Amino acid sequence: MGRLKLAVLGAGMVGATTAQRLAEKELGDVVLTDVVEGMPQGKALDLLEAGPVEGYDVDVRGTNDIADIAGASVVVVTAGLARKPGMSRDDLLQRNAEIVGGLADAIRRHAPDSIVVVVTNPLDVMAHLVHKRTGFEACRVMGMAGVLDSARFRTFVAIELGVSARDVHAMVLGGHGDSMVPLPRFSTVSGIPVTELLPRERIEAIVQRTRNGGAEIVELLKQGSAFYAPSASAACMVESIVRDQKRVLPAAVRLSGQYGLRDVFAGVPVKLGARGVEEIIELPLTPEELAALRSSAEQVRALAARVA
């Protein structure tokens, strides 16, 4: 039995960096696709040539033919337009829906047994669209948001306290955007709740910076958007699936009654393994936290109706 085949759709900064991380983790052979002629081929060759130096030994191939994803076990969707300064994730809705909808049709045709991790924004809506267009069972389609949002929250907590980010664990639920729901009660430093270590006003400031994390980077870069942390987050999810690690990570998944929500994608903690989303974990939320999560999910539902 040969190595697993992993496909990354979109060879921009997020896609190419995701391909790099998958190769460096030796999770499988990587196929990098894009509509721009030469770009995925060039980046793939560059990644292949880095292998002898970095010590990874997998095949990395670039292509403009989406049919080359045939047989992929996991497909990561990063293709689409990136945000520009002043542009909300929702502004991207219609343009990226056209791109991602076409890719979902191709995934259904060429990689019908794959698990799909969606990264393209607006992320929760794009995951909904991929699920609908592929017709895949819900456990095989998920959006990468919670891992990234939680990583940002963890980073800002570590900076505030002057501690190692490795010892900070955080949980961020809800949609990927201004309505996300960071949960300080479920966020800890070596098991100590953040609420015991920081005053409420500092936690609120960190929560707000987390919500604005992507936009902050967009404003600083002037052109393009974040790609190091998003690619790391996507690779983390792929690794848990490919290696059947069964990690508990926040991800955008289709809910079927959990948290009082149904037929909508929202960020919640899930167990990720070889079958994809193997379990959705229901946290005991306060009425305020639950109301925030439901409000976030309803915003996703309203946007999803516009691309139905």
What's the total count of β strands? 14
How is the CATH topology of the largest domain named? L-2-Hydroxyisocaproate Dehydrogenase, Chain A, domain 2
Low-confidence stretches: none
What global shape is seen? globular
Main sheet summary: 6 strands, parallel
Distance between the termini: 40 Å
Structure description:
The structure is a single chain. This protein has 308 residues and is of the alpha/beta class. It has helices at 13-24, 39-54, 93-110, 123-134, 146-161, 200-211, 213-221, 228-242, 287-306; strands spanning 5-9, 29-33, 60-63, 74-77, 115-118, 141-143, 168-169, 172-173, 181-182, 188-189, 192-193, 247-256, 262-273, 276-280. It has a six-stranded parallel beta sheet with strand order 3-2-1-4-5-6, sandwiched between helices. Strand 2 (29-33), helix 2 and strand 3 form a beta-alpha-beta unit. It is globular and about 50 Å long.
Brief descriptors of the model:
14 strands; 42% helix; alpha/beta; single chain; 9 helices; globular
In brief:
By secondary structure, the protein is α/β, with parallel strands linked by helices.
Question: What are the SSEs and their pairings?
Answer:
Layout: E1 5-9, H1 13-24, E2 29-33, H2 39-54, E3 60-63, E4 74-77, H3 93-110, E5 115-118, H4 123-134, E6 141-143, H5 146-161, E7 168-169, E8 172-173, E9 181-182, E10 188-189, E11 192-193, H6 200-211, H7 213-221, H8 228-242, E12 247-256, E13 262-273, E14 276-280, H9 287-306
Parallel strand pairs: 1-2, 1-4, 2-3, 4-5, 5-6
Antiparallel strand pairs: 7-10, 8-9, 10-11, 12-13, 13-14
Helix pairs in contact: 1-2, 1-8, 3-4, 4-9, 5-6, 5-8
